[in-house]
Amino acid sequence: MQPRVRQTTKIFYFDYAAATPVSAQVERAMRPYLSRVYGNPSSLHRQGQKARRALEDSRKQVAEALAARQEEIIFTAGGTESCNLAILGFAKALAGQKAHFITSAIEHPAVLKPFAELQKWGHAVTYLKTSAEGLVSVRELAKAIRPETALVSIMFANNEIGALQPIAEIGKFLSKINFERSKRKRGRIYFHTDACQAAGFCDLSVSRLNIDLLTLNGGKIYGPKQSGVLYAKNGTPLFPLLLGGGQERGLRSGTENVAAAVGLAKALVLAQASRKTASVRLAALRDFLAKSLARSVPEIILNGPQLDSGLRLPNNLNITVPGVEGEALLLYLDAYGVCVSTGSACSSNENQPSHVLKAIGVPGRLVKSNLRITLGAGTSKAEVSYLAKVFPQVVLSLKTVINQVK
After folding, report:
1. How many CB atoms lie within 10 A of CB 92?
2. What residues are labeled active site?
3. Which residue among 270, 292, 309 closes a domain?
4. Residue 335 contacts by C-beta under 8 Å, 6 or more apart in sequence?
5. Nearest to 226 by CA among 193, 259, 188, 253
6. pTM for the whole structure
7. Given a cut of 60, is residue 159 above it in pLDDT?
8. End position of a domain, from candidates 241, 270, 299
């Protein structure tokens, strides 16, 4: 027996961690490079050189946003490619030398799957456990380091539970380790962070954070999908995964997508300029929603860092509703026009329980009862109030059906 659900055509979008709309400012910036300035940036004629100037201007904007050098910016086709190039490209540059790599158990699949590949190549891999709130311990990282450790990859902000990792602290710690290693003439440890979810809310100054490799994705910051950046500090060993014409310093062959690069650069500049005000606004809306849901559905469990801890993305709310499957909640909320997620959109098609929730100790019976609600630029108080209103109705309807089936 199915509960009656009032269908609506209006959309209430709460899945900004999965995808963001292209902003009007970004769209305007991209438009000329979709139709009028269409030359290949490698061509020497005026159309090609117009495209080249736009590409390099975009590279400069990204570099300035990261407090990096222009030649350290590599444009890619998204966050997944950037992570793969950072990890597998680094490993290939070792030229057959076996090394030790460290990451966390709650990384995005774009990091975890390359790490699984490293193991197939014969490298040693350590997966750091996290606290129950999803936070990596620098102390545990220190224990994991070996003489042959070559790369540490820890995400800046988790895409499911919003946990903000101590990236600056890790970077500072690794800098000290590398200083000691240099005195002993040992190889340094390089540091990569997947900052795709953090770009709209956190300071990404790579020099302050002591980062060697950093991954960005335009589709998470109101830029175009299939646009990405890998920051690679000068001197960081990398070998290309795509071979061809030798574009992007020889590290990413293929004709550059100028429009995507322009859009990503514009989106990143806007995101970094507005990150503080956006954080304050979205945290207030998120906290209002969390309190409203807790009042109407008291059994709700919060996953990840506490809301007032400062250790969580300001737009993220990941909850468990015991006794109700998250996928059922998602589908019935969708009938009310509400778009949410049950975890990482990049792995939802695999229909596997969240590895993040399992890693932070959520009991097996509850892992499939979670929802990820993420807010963004288009989220209003009225929309949050609407979700707070319909959510308990959906939970009650689903529990009624479950009891009837029993």
Report:
1. 16
2. 346
3. 270
4. 5, 6, 7, 8
5. 259
6. 0.95
7. yes
8. 270
